[in-house]
Design brief:
This protein has 4 helices and 27 strands. By secondary structure, the protein is mainly beta. The strands form 7 sheets. Strands 1, 3, 4, 7, 8 and 21 form a 6-stranded mixed β-sheet that branches. A hairpin with a 7-residue loop joins strand 11 (132-138) and strand 12.
């Protein structure tokens, strides 16, 4: 959601600044009206059987250094042509409501009242979405990134072009830099074995920052096959051990597809001379009380389809930059040395005693808790319920629809 607001903000600012550079032949005054510098931005989709979220914000002046501000204290509701109304609750510009099962024969739209104006999205019947047949990771060469490819199930209508959007959530396994299975006992002044002192394995979560849109026009039978929706760099922490993605698929209209393409282009070109202003982006939202422009597109879905997949590092050419061993090495430490090391917050990792051998010595290695406890990497240690058990290759994949 934040991606849209940042993209639009960048486009507005850069369009104003690109023609004021010293290399311009003549001065250019951007033709941007005052009404275009305080546009309402609407993000969200009307979905059946789930918690719906709509985010309202405002763009800033082309000369402003602030990001878009949230639109608070608006009255927002989802309405149907059958007279149904679903009121939202607001929390800092985020408006949510639970919507039960939508009727495929009813047209639904978003109704917004704010700043003495009324806005509504175009009424539309909720679109059904096919399931996802397959999601997989593919690496073309040992040096390339890992592409995530999606294949929807056979289209509900093979006689016309089908349009989709995909978003995704991520979870990946993280390990601590070092491990230890011993402990220095300050009473006996000896090394003793102790397991599970520190959590060595954890997980991190993230949501994808982009929305990928696709059309079936170039595929046989209008059936999309192995379409790339995102990639993971082979040197990214996410693929060091085991990675899981949860892909969300939604069928969309041609108009919403064109909006997503235009928004993506505006973001990738970052305010080039030929990039349209945000107010020129296609939208299905209009202001009923004035001629004010609106940014955004509100789709309507009868269901969404989810698919969870797993990637294992052993199946790909993963690059892990060499890591300098930053542990503390100490030979033949005295009891006083060991006390001092423990007092400095160090924990024993290795205790190799060869003093009984000719010329032998005692070798010890120590590390700080931040090097041993995976939580210092920002990971949590409660294993996700969907995570494969130890020894499982994690290749099972689970399509869902709701």
């Amino acid at each position: 959601m934040m991606k849209l607001r940042k993209t639009l903000y960048s486009v507005i600012c850069l369009m104003a600044g690109v023609c004021t550079l010293s290399g311009c032949i003549e001065e250019y005054e951007a033709d941007i009206s005052a009404s275009d510098s305080y546009l309402l931005v609407v993000e969200g989709t009307i979905c059946s059987g789930k918690l719906n979220q709509f985010i309202l914000s405002r763009t800033q002046s082309v000369y402003s250094t602030e990001e878009a501000q949230m639109e608070r204290r608006a009255e927002v509701s989802v309405r149907g042509s059958d007279g149904s109304v679903f009121m939202t609750q607001e929390n800092g510009g985020c408006y949510t409501c639970w919507i039960g099962t939508l009727s495929p024969d009813v047209e639904y739209y978003l109704h917004i009242e704010t700043d003495e104006d009324i806005y509504e999205s175009e009424p539309q019947k909720p679109m059904p979405t096919e399931g996802i047949a397959d999601v997989r990771g593919v690496q073309d060469t040992p040096e390339s990134s890992i592409d995530v490819l999606v294949t929807p199930e056979a289209p509900l209508e093979s006689g016309r072009v089908n349009y989709y959007s995909w978003t995704y959530d991520e979870t990946w396994e993280v390990h601590s830099d070092y491990t230890t299975h011993m402990y220095f006992d300050m009473e006996t002044m000896k090394a003793v074995f102790r397991t599970n002192q520190f959590p060595e394995r954890g997980w991190k979560d993230a949501s994808g920052s982009t929305i990928m849109a696709g059309a079936s026009s170039s595929y046989a039978g209008q059936h999309i096959q192995r379409l790339k929706i995102y990639d993971i760099d082979r040197g990214d922490e996410r693929i060091y051990h085991r990675y899981s993605g949860l892909v969300h698929q939604r069928a969309i209209t041609k108009a919403e597809y064109e909006y997503e393409l235009a928004r993506s282009q505006a973001g990738s070109e970052m305010g080039g001379l030929f990039t349209p202003l945000p107010s020129a982006l296609p939208t299905n939202i209009r202001c009923l009380t004035s001629h004010k422009h609106v940014i955004g597109f509100v789709g309507c879905s009868l269901n969404t389809s989810d698919y969870r997949f797993f990637l294992n590092a052993a199946d790909f050419s993963v690059y892990r930059p060499p890591m300098k061993d930053e542990r503390v090495f100490f030979e033949n430490p005295s009891d006083s040395d060991c006390r001092q090391l423990v007092g400095q917050g160090l924990y024993l990792c290795e205790w190799k005693d060869e003093r009984m051998m000719p010329g032998g010595k005692l070798t010890t290695i120590w590390a700080y808790q931040r090097q041993l406890d995976v939580r210092y990497k920002g990971a949590y240690i409660i294993e996700p319920v969907f995570w494969p058990s130890e020894g499982d290759d994690g290749e099972q994949q689970s399509p869902e629809s709701h």
